[in-house]
Every structure is written in structure tokens, then in C-alpha cells.
Design brief:
Layout lengths: L11 E12 L5 E12 L6 E8 L4 E8 L2
Antiparallel strand pairs: 1-2, 3-4
């Protein structure tokens, strides 16, 4: 696990988007994106970017998960 960003956001609603690029099977390039909307209050927020390999077609699956 690596920290990608640490910063401050104002309270309120924010849309978070992540883009990934890479090489898949047979050296084919891919680009994937995931988005989520979070409601930022006064508490700390932690988000996780998950990149998983789908075994049925060997393509990556990217998602954003909000930690509790």
C-alpha cells in the first residue's frame, strides 16, 4: 500500500475520479477509470483505490472504496 495523496478538502460534496493505464495480455494497452461522490464533514476521510484482475478476461477492474 502506498499513500498517493494527502490534503484538505472543504466540507461538502466532492466527486473523486481515478484513471489508470497499463499493459494487459498480449501487450495491449488499456485505460480504466472509476468515480465516486463523497460527502466530506469535519472528520477524517480515507479512500482506497482497488485494482483487481478479472480472471475471466484478464482485464483489470478499478474501484474507489471509502474506509470507515
Amino acid at each position: 500500500m502506498q499513500r498517493l495523496h494527502m490534503g484538505n478538502l472543504k466540507s461538502g460534496e466532492h466527486e473523486i475520479t481515478v484513471f489508470i493505464e497499463g499493459l494487459g495480455p498480449d501487450n495491449r494497452h488499456y485505460k480504466k477509470a472509476a468515480s465516486t461522490v463523497i460527502e466530506k464533514g469535519t472528520d477524517l476521510k480515507a479512500l482506497e483505490i482497488k485494482i483487481r484482475d478479472r480472471s475471466n478476461d484478464y482485464q483489470p477492474d478499478v474501484s474507489i472504496v471509502e474506509w470507515d
